[in-house]
Amino acid sequence: MTATAPTTARPPAEPTTGRKRPAFLQMTNLRESGIFIAFVAIVALFSLLHSQFLSPNNITNIVLQYSYILILAIGMVIVIIAGHIDLSVGSVVALTGAVAAILVIRNGQPWWVGVLAALVVGFLVGCWQGFWVAYVGIPAFIVTLAGMLLFRGLTFMTLDSISLSPFGGTYYQIANGFQNGLLGGYGYDVFTLLVFALAVAAYAFTAWRSRRARQRYQQAVEALPLFVAKIVVVAAVAMWFAYKLATHRGLPNVLILLGLLIVVYTLVTQRSVFGRHVYAIGGNLNAAQLSGVKVRRVNFWIFVNMGVLASVAGIVFSARTNSAQPGAGNMFELDAIAACFIGGAAVTGGIGKVTGAMIGGLIMAVMSNGMQLMGVETPLQQVVKGLVLLLAVAFDIWNKRRAGTR
Amino acid sequence: MTDNILEMRSITKTFPGVVALKDVNLTVRRGEIHAICGENGAGKSTLMKVLSGVYPHGTYEGEIHYDGEEVRFGSINDSEARGIVIIHQELALVPFLSAAENIFLGNERRGPGGLIDWNRTNAEAAELMARVGLHENPVTHVSQLGVGKQQLIEIAKALSKEVRLLILDEPTAALNDADSEHLLGILRQLNAQGITCIMISHKLNEIASIADRTTIIRDGRTIEVLDMKDPASTQDRMIKSMVGRDLEHRYPERTPNIGEEVLRVEDWTVHHPTQPERVVVDGASFTVHAGEVVGIAGLMGAGRTELAMSLFGRSYGRDITGRVYKRGEEIKIASVSDAIAHGIAYATEDRKKYGLNLIEDVRRNVTAAGLKKVSRRGWVNGNEELKVAEEYRASLNIKTPTVLYQTGKLSGGNQQKVVLSKWIYTDADVLILDEPTRGIDVGAKYEIYTIINRMVAAGKAVVVISSELPELLGICDRIYTLAFGRITGVLPAAEATQERLMELMTIEKDKAR
C-alpha cells in the first residue's frame, strides 16, 4: 500500500481568540447536560404522576435502595472506560456478604471483623481477575463470566446453600442507620443541612476556582450569568434534597459513604495519573503502550479496584437486607453496566465519567421506584428499563454522528 | 481491433488537499506481464484501487477501457465479474479456514438444496492448487501454511474466479528468495496460459527478469513506459525515472553543529514476532550525534519501522539481540518507559493507529508521555498541564481552536505537531521520527522540518525514517540505507544523490555486504 491518502478533512477555520464561545463547546455542554436534563424530566414526570414520589420518606428510600448499584457503577465505569467489562460483580457482592455473615453471625465476631474480611475477599477477587485479564491476556468478558459462575458457586459453598440472618447491631446500622440530631433542630436535622451547605459551598468554590484558572490560561468559559445560574440551580436542588432528608430521618450513613466515594473517584478519574492512564488505554491501547503507560499494571489495578468496590457494595447490601443469601446480588452487574452506558460511557472505551454513571444509575433507580409506586408490574418495569437503556445509547450515538466525530 | 486488454486514460484522483494521481495513463497489452514501478507514495496502489473499483466510478476523472469497451466499476464485485482480480500486499485470507474454503470464499461450490458440496469444493480446490504448483491437502488450515504458500492460495483463489487480468501488489515483498523464485515461475506459467498480469514491485531485478514492459509512476504522474527487451531499459535507467525529480519542496536552512555521540546501536537483530525464523532486522549498527539529523532510507518492507520500534522498548519483534550505548554507556531498554527514561522518543509512522488518542483533547495528548512532569505523587496538576499544552500550541503553531479541542478533528499536519509536542515534552535527547511528513501537505511539511531544525539546534539528536529521498537529502546530515533488514551503506548528505541511495536501497539480500 503506497497511497498517501489523508483521511482527515481539515476542520473549518474557527476563531482561536476572543470571548466568543465556539460552536463545539456548546455542543459538548449539550451532550453532557442531555443526560442530566433527561433525569430531571423523569423526576418531574413521576412527581406529577404520584403525589408521594417526592416525599421525604420516598426520597430516603431511593437512596437506600439503590446505593449498592451506584457503588458498583463507580467501579464499573472505570472498567468500561478502559475498554473492559465486569460481569462478576453480582456474585462478588454475594460472596463478600456471605463471608461477613459467617464471621459476624455464625462466629459472633465484632462488626468490623466482618467488614475487613469482606474487603480482603474483594481485594483477592480483584487480584485474581486482574491477573487473568492483565497478565495472561484473556478478554475481561470471559474472565468475569467465569468469575460470575465461580464466585456464585463459592457463595453457595460458604453459606452451605442457606441464608444467614440477622446481623443486627453496628453492622446493620451501616446501611440502615442515620446521622440525626447531632446538632439538634426543630423537626428537622441541622447536621444534615450543615453538611449539605458545606458541600454546596465547596462545590461553588472549586467551580469558581477552575473557572478562574481557565480564564488565566485563556481558555473558553461559559458566560458569567450562565455560570452563576448553574451554581444556583445545583445549590437549590441540593439544599431542597437536604431539607427533605432533614425533615425525615436525617442523613443516611450510606449517603455519606456514597458521597465520599463519588468525590474520591471523581478526583481519581479526572486528576490522577492512574485515571489518565485508564482513559489513555481505553482511547487507544497502542498509543498508550507506545507512550510508556504500563498497560498491564493499570489493567490489574482496575480490576482490584472493582473487586474492592464490589465488596463495599456487598457489605452495604448485606447490611441493608440484614442477611446473607446465596442468591444475593443476582443481576446487579447488569444494572451497574446499564447505569454506565446510560450515563454516557462508550462501549468502545475511552469515554465515560463517574458523575455520568451516577446519574445513569439514578435514572434507573428513579424509574424503578416511580413505577413501583404507580403499581406497575415487574415484567413491564423490565421492558421499560430495557427500552430506556437502548434509547439512551441510541441518543448518544445519534448525537456523536451529528457532531461528526466518528 | 486492438491488442490492448486495458487502457486507463488520463486518470486523475484527488483526496481532500492532495492530488494522488494526475493524468495517469496505463496501457496493458493482452497476454503481457506489465510491471508498475515507483517510489512509496507515487500512486501505484491508488491507481490499482481505481482500476478494481475500490474507488468507484465517479470518484475519479478519466476513462477505463477494458477489452475494447469503456467500463465503469462501482465496486470490486463489478471488476471481478469481468475477470479483473487484485491480490493485495496484505493477504486477505481467513487463517482458520481451510485452503479450499478460502479459495471458494464468497463463491462457494453448492450442491442440491444450496448446501456446500464439499467433495466438489475440495476436488476443484486441489486442481486449482496444482495449477499454482501447490501440493497440499485442500483441507489444511491456511494458518498452517507459510506466507509463500498463502500467496499461492491467493492466486488459486483468483483462478477460481476465472481471472483474465491478475493484479499483484508487491507479491514478493514478504517472501524469501526461494519462494519468490517459485512465485515468479508460476506467474510465467499462468502468463503462458493467457492470463495478463500487472505486477507492482520494488524489486528491480525481479521486474527485469519477468516483465515485458514497465510503466514508471512518480508523484502521481506517468513518467514513461519502458520496453524491457530494449537493452536501454537498465535498472539504472529505472531508478533515474523513479526519483528524477527536481527538488520541488523547499527545506529550511540549517548550519550543522554536530557534537558528541549520543546513541550507538551495535549488531541489532530482530526476528518477526509470529514467524521466529524470519529475520526482519539483520545485524544493524548505526550512530547518532548531538545536533545531528540522521536519515534512514529504505523501501517498504526493508525493516525501518521494525528497527525503530524494537529499539523503542522492544515494542516489535522477538529474539532481539544487540547492544545500545547512550553517551558511551551501554543501556538496557526493556520497556517503553525505560526508553523514555533514557531519553529516547519514537514518533510512529501511523499517528492515528499508534500515535494519538483521537477521542481525547489536544492537551492530554501533549502530556500523554510526559505526564510525570506535570504531576506530583500521582496527581496531575491540571493548570500546569493546560499551561504546557498552551506553550506547545504556540511554539509549534498547532492550529486548533483551543487545546481542549478533540485531536481527531485536526488536520494531519496538526495532528503530527501534537505527536511531536508529546515527544519533545518528554525531554528526549534522541528522537526517532518515523515518516514524520506522511500524508500532510507541503506547507505543514515545511513547518515540521523547521521543528526538526530547532530540536537539533537545541542539541538533540534526530533520526528521520522516510521513504521520500528528497526529504532525507534536504534535512539530514548523514543517511543510512536499509535493504531487506540490513544496513547497506551510509552516506554524508553532501555526497548522497537519489540515484546512489536508490541503488543501495535495492541491493538484494545475497548481494548485501
Task: Write a concise synopsis of the structure shown.
The complex is a heterodimer of chains A (about 400) and B (about 525). Chain A has about 400 residues and is an all-alpha fold.
Q: Describe it for me?
A:
The complex is a heterodimer of chains A (406) and B (513). Chain A contains 15 helices and 2 strands. The longest helix of chain A is centred in the N-terminal third of the chain and has 27 residues, at 23-49. Chain A has a two-stranded antiparallel ribbon with strand order 1-2. By secondary structure, chain A is mainly alpha-helical. In chain A, helix 1 packs parallel to helix 14 (354-373) and helix 7 (190-216) runs antiparallel to helix 8. Chain B has 3 domains: 4-243, Rossmann fold (3-Layer(aba) Sandwich); 259-343 and 429-439 and 459-513, P-loop containing nucleotide triphosphate hydrolases (Rossmann fold); 349-427, no CATH class. Helices cover 32% and strands 27% of the residues of chain B. A 6-stranded mixed β-sheet of chain B has the order 6-7-8-3-9-10, with helices on both faces. In chain B, helix 4 packs across helix 5 (147-160) and helix 8 (235-243) packs across helix 17. The N and C termini of chain B lie far apart (51 Å).
Distance between the termini of chain A: 24 Å
CATH topology of the largest domain in chain B: Rossmann fold
Task: Decide which structural class fits the backbone of chain B.
Answer: alpha/beta
Radius of gyration of chain A: 23 Å
Write the layout of secondary structure elements.
The complex is a heterodimer of chains A (406) and B (513).
Chain A: H1 23-49, H2 56-81, H3 89-106, H4 111-136, H5 140-159, H6 169-176, E1 178-179, H7 190-216, H8 224-247, E2 251-252, H9 253-271, H10 273-283, H11 285-290, H12 295-321, H13 332-342, H14 354-373, H15 378-403
Antiparallel strand pairs in A: 1-2
Helix pairs in contact in A: 1-14, 1-15, 2-8, 2-9, 2-10, 2-12, 2-13, 2-14, 3-4, 3-5, 3-12, 4-12, 6-12, 7-8, 9-10, 10-12, 13-14, 13-15
Chain B: E1 4-15, E2 18-29, E3 33-37, H1 44-52, E4 61-66, E5 69-71, H2 76-81, E6 84-87, H3 99-103, H4 118-131, H5 147-160, E7 165-169, H6 177-192, E8 196-200, H7 204-210, E9 213-218, E10 221-227, H8 235-243, E11 261-271, E12 279-289, E13 293-298, H9 304-311, E14 318-326, E15 329-331, H10 336-341, E16 344-347, H11 351-355, H12 362-366, E17 375-376, E18 379-380, H13 382-395, H14 412-424, E19 430-434, H15 442-457, E20 461-466, H16 469-475, E21 478-483, E22 486-492, H17 498-505
Parallel strand pairs in B: 3-8, 3-9, 6-7, 7-8, 13-20, 13-21, 16-19, 19-20
Antiparallel strand pairs in B: 1-2, 1-4, 4-5, 9-10, 11-12, 11-14, 14-15, 17-18, 21-22
Helix pairs in contact in B: 4-5, 8-17, 14-15
